[in-house]
Design brief:
By secondary structure, this protein is α/β, with parallel strands linked by helices. It is built from 11 helices and 4 strands; from the N terminus they run αβαβαβααβαααααα. The N and C termini lie far apart (45 Å). The relative contact order is 0.14.
């Protein structure tokens, strides 16, 4: 699995005639795994951006812990003031609308460096998030390649251990960090273990008894289908 992904990343960089990879590291397990795999693929031609925006202190500490352990080339760009100033000129909105701005500001920053360096932007989304629609359109989904998008969250955790990602990063509650107290599982209303079991049944068309939340997950997948497709075109 590890070798295949590393080889695939190398191939994508070569096909694009790019020089390397740029990505964001958040202190979470997904970005940690993608960083470790990308480093194996492109070596020093990997740039990891730490992009705080009213971020939790522990997330920044975990991102820095990862960077030290793997000796990653990092640049920190604090987007907090940019976000605050942008919010001031917009009408009031709910927490989700404001949180998605953070993801989109990060996307803009990643592509600035990608254009500057002729690097590809590597995304950190996994298969569970992809099918649950748990990502921000033109935010964390605005990338060039998705190295771990065919791995369920539970598989990402296993791979993280084989890559020697710090255990505190692996076991921390997954969160997009878009607002205070947010967790992936809390927002989706289902644990990753249950989500992965249900998705495997749905995608592989298995008939397994006692798997919870099949109908709930089918509904989630259906309602988020638009997020996995290109923008619809009105053909004349």
């Amino acid at each position: 699995m590890e070798r295949k992904i590393v080889s695939w990343i190398k191939k994508q960089v070569k096909l694009a005639n790019a020089k390397g990879i740029v990505m964001g590291i958040s202190g979470g397990v997904d970005s940690s795994v993608v960083a470790a795999l990308s480093q194996k693929a492109v070596g020093k031609n990997l740039l990891c951006l730490i992009l705080p925006c009213h971020s939790l202190k522990e997330d920044l500490e975990d991102a820095e812990l990862l960077a030290r352990q793997f000796r990653l080339n990092t640049i920190t760009v604090d987007l907090t003031s940019m976000y605050d100033n942008f919010i001031k000129i917009l009408p009031k909105a709910d927490t989700k609308a404001k949180g998605n701005i953070k993801a989109r500001l990060r996307m803009i920053t990643l592509y600035y460096f990608a254009n500057k360096l002729n690097y590809l932007v590597a995304g950190t989304g996994n298969k569970s998030e992809l099918y649950a629609g748990y990502f921000t359109k033109y935010g964390d989904a605005g990338v060039d390649i998705l190295p771990i998008a065919d791995l369920f969250k539970t598989e990402v955790r296993k791979l993280a251990r084989s890559l020697d990602i710090p255990e505190r990063i692996i076991i921390k509650p997954p969160s997009a960090g878009l607002w205070q107290g947010q967790t992936d599982e809390g927002e989706m209303g289902i644990t990753y273990n249950d989500l992965d079991c249900a998705l495997q049944c749905i995608l592989e068309k298995k008939k397994i008894k006692n798997i919870k939340d099949i109908s709930k997950v089918k509904d989630i997948v259906a309602k988020t289908e638009h997020k996995r497709k290109p923008a619809a075109i009105c053909y004349l």
